[in-house]
Amino acid sequence: MEKEAGPDAAGLRLDDPWYEAPAAGWGEPDGAGGGAAGDGWSHAGARQEYSAADIYLEVQNSPAFREVRRRYRRFVVPAAAAFLLWYLAYVIAATTAHGLMARPVAGVLNVAMVAGLGQFLTTFLLTWAYARHARLHRDRAALELRWETQEMTRGISR
Predict the structure, then answer these.
(1) In terms of DSSP bridges, do strands 12-13 and 2-3 run parallel, antiparallel, or are they unpaired?
(2) Which of 148, 132, 127, 151 is nearest to 60 (CA)?
(3) Consecutive H or E run containing 83
(4) CA distance 95 to 76
(5) Strand pairing of 104-106 and 12-13?
(6) Averaged pLDDT for residues 31-41
(7) How many CB atoms neighbour CB 108 within 10 A?
(8) pLDDT at 157
(9) At CA 144, angle to CA 48 and CA 131, rounded to 5?
């Protein structure tokens, strides 16, 4: 963050390394090119129509955001419930069904050890499935929402 020099600069400006200042008059309302310093920032507040809170509420109420959240919940809720049931079944069986859990499977390996190792395996499988689901069904839409939100909040003073 740098303090802008000059009498017009009363506040702090956060420099965005991904922001390319538009050519004179491009992308500015009514062809007004640049701010007071001619750097593409609107110091007079010409682009400041909404507050950041209004913009984020608008995004939160948008159909695209609701779709991302719906896709997230459609995966996470059933997966978390299934894993919790599997974990509770293991704990209940370990505490109440001593005979079943002590039954040998192969050599010194018994049912309790296989089920315990199965807990680790399902943790890794669930992590892989979550990352895959996010990559295929949510990441692109969420990234688009992020960029749209950043574009909408670009001219708002912080």
Answers:
(1) antiparallel
(2) 148
(3) helix 63-96
(4) 28
(5) unpaired
(6) 41
(7) 7
(8) 60
(9) 140
Partner residues linked to 109 by β-bridges? 106
Contacts of 47 (CB under 8 A, 6+ apart): 29, 154, 155, 156
Q: Tokens 């001219």 identify what position?
A: 155
Of 130, 143, 127, nearest in space to 64 by CA: 143
In whole angstroms, what is the distance from residue 138 CA to residue 144 CA? 10
Detail the DSSP E strand segments found in 10-149.
Answer: 12-13, 104-106, 109-110
Report residue 12: phi and psi, to 5°.
Answer: -85, 150
Phi, psi of 83 (to 5 degrees): -65, -40
> Is this prediction's pTM over 0.90?
no
Find tokens 């950043």 and name the residue: 150
C-alpha dihedral sign at 117, 118, 121, 122? negative
